[in-house]
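Q: What would this chain look like folded?
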Amino acid sequence: MSIALYARKSIERENSISCETQLEYCKSMIKPDEQTEKIVTFVDNGFSGGNVDRDGFQKMMRQVERGKISKIIVYRLDRISRSLSDFVNILNTLKKHNVKFISSQESFDTSSPYGEMIVKILMIFAEFERQSIIERVTQAYAHRSEMGFYMGGRKPYGFTLTDTMIHNIKTKMLSPVAEEIEQLKYIFEAYSVPGITLRRLMDNLIDNDILPTDGSWSTGKLSTILKNPIYVKANNDIYEYLLKHNTNIISDISEFNGVHGLQIYGKTKHSTDDWSDMKAVVMSHEGVINSDIWLNCQKKLEKNKQIGNAISNTTSWLGGKIACKSCGRTMTVTKGGKRRDGSQTRYFSCTGKSHNRICKGTKKPVYADSLEDMVYELVSEKIETLKCTRKKISTDNSNQINLLKNRISEIKKAQEQLVNLLMNDAIETDMINLLNERAKKLAEEKADILSKIDALENEESEIISAINLSKKWRAANFEERKAVCNILIHKILIDESGNCEVVWNI
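A: My prediction, written as structure tokens:
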């Protein structure tokens, strides 16, 4: 039988007493008639007392269960555990194997009922202390989060951490990495296009040698990036999006100025539309993705199943435009095998080969996805050449529109408060009249602001009507793309090597 000395140093307190010093105190508790007994030490350096998943402790308890330990000596009770339930279980195990438990600082042992009672009482306070530490840490985390501090963890792709001062407190802020930010802009722009799935987006990035600086792309990684509000330029549209999801918005509405990124933390409820346990804070770094593009991506992510069904359609918006350069016959979409994600492979095949047997067709498959992506880019470039050479609107209008929208949001909140007051049966008549007058003024102000927004948006649309062609093409659905191709493209000729030539109508 051996006497075990156990020491643990907490990770929660860097200035806690060392394990070596604890063991010296433990040795002082060995009685003279025990000096000849074997002494074994078990140490856990840098482990919390919140649980018993510690190497040294587990080795000691295995020795207890094998009947090789007669007594355990510790510096203090909380070195064993800060959890009352864990400690009671430990005591029961020690009692079962007739092992005494001694604390060098509390001066008692478990060989008497009184000592066992005192141990349990002290452990209640030890657990209370641990819960207090957790609560303080949690409150400090929440407070720093609400102040817009970066709260650590894995930094988001596209940023690095730099030192800064916020409210005279030293902290870290996110600073952009130029190469990665350009990749992010491409990712959001590409995914916001209808018909582009995460799988196609990943293939597109790899095919174009757009590779991440920290490993490789995966659909999971792309999904995480696209969902992250840290990239968005938080404006009134984002504010309203958060309100729609019942998010607890910490930052004032004036901070949603279309400049800075956004941090959301907490846990969502079972319903994806209920973010009432989530908190949103506008951060100190500048956002890099426009709100309309970010919101389009969120809509797609929320409707992945629908989009997946649309992509599995075996037709193509290029149908009727693809022709074999060798024989002049139309090329049609043919089904292929299944991909790993379950979607169907599609490729164009020459009807002169499959139907009339007058052509050898292409030497390699012409995949519909790849051809559609290429033609999409060519049409985008063609639309650029069709734009009017009118001056692009300055950002003054958009900033002004955003400020007006923020005021609309404030008015909505004030109107809701007025409705709640007016529903109060105890309210007096004079107060009702005042509230009605206030409601009338708010309604008039709201109508006036809406008129101003319409005027500014009409002015913007007049100036950039040609510029909006590109936006409309990016957002075009299946039928709209087909219609645009019918106007712009006469034929797309594919030679036997799979190369294509676009013959334009314009």
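The first helix runs from residue 19 to 27.
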